[in-house]
């Protein structure tokens, strides 16, 4: 499911971005996944129905967002790592005062959430219907012609798994 999200649009209110980088987290089979040790109050959304947004707080300062994509009870999710802004940048800039260029607005999972205003109140939003104010849509942009598959970023457990995909050559990708 992860590479299928590339070039879909993540929308939160008037802010929209083309998804250009994702990582897969594979539940109980993946020691890097929040779902590895089973359901908790923090990760409950991961074990719920697919098509919802799992938002979590990390390092005591950042929000990150995932699209839940497995069957109920599996704990499978795709981390949304980077977007190419396509609308609402006038709202993104004040939320990301450290950003100097447009490509700095959403190039990384925490930056993406900050720019879009995603936080714990969005945990559980229905990405299919838009209930909760967050949605993923196909706006007709063709799937990327060249996708890079590589290992995930910023983890130590299961770091060798090739479960990260990004659009080759896109300047908004967090790391090449």
Description:
The structure is a single chain. The chain has helices spanning 89-95, 109-116; strands spanning 9-12, 15-26, 53-58, 62-68, 76-87, 134-137, 147-150, 164-167. The chain is mainly beta. The longest helix is centred in the middle third of the chain and has 8 residues, at 109-116. It is globular, with a radius of gyration of 15 Å. Strands 1, 2, 3, 4, 5, 6, 7 and 8 form an eight-stranded antiparallel sheet that branches. Helices cover 9% and strands 30% of the residues.
Shape: globular
Write the element-wise H/E pattern from the N-terminal end onward.
Answer: EEEEEHHEEE
Q: How large is the count of helical segments?
A: 2
Strand content: 25-35%
User: What is the second-level CATH architecture?
Assistant: Roll
Biggest pleated sheet? 8 strands, antiparallel
CATH third-tier fold name: 3-methyladenine DNA Glycosylase, Chain A
By DSSP, the count of extended strands is 8
Radius of gyration: 15 Å
- The average pLDDT value, as a whole number, equals 96
Note poorly predicted spans. none
- CATH-level-4 superfamily name: Methylpurine-DNA glycosylase (MPG)
> Which CATH top level class fits?
Alpha Beta
* Percent helix range: under 10%
């Amino acid at each position: 499911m992860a590479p299928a999200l590339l070039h879909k649009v993540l929308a939160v209110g008037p802010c929209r971005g083309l998804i250009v980088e994702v990582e897969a987290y594979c539940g109980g089979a993946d020691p890097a996944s929040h779902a590895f040790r089973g359901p908790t109050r923090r990760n409950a959304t991961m074990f719920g129905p697919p098509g919802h947004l799992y938002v979590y707080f990390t390092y005591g300062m950042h929000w990150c967002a995932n699209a839940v994509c497995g069957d109920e009870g599996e704990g499978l999710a795709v981390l949304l790592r980077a977007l190419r802004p396509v609308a609402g940048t006038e709202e993104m800039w004040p939320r990301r005062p450290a950003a100097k260029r447009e490509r700095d607005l959403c190039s990384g999972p925490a930056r993406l959430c900050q720019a879009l205003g995603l936080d714990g109140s969005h945990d559980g939003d229905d990405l299919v219907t838009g209930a909760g104010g967050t949605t993923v849509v196909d706006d007709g942009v063709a799937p990327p012609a060249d996708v890079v598959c590589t290992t995930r970023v910023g983890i130590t457990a299961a770091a060798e798994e090739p479960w990260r995909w990004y659009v080759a050559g896109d300047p908004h990708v967090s790391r090449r």
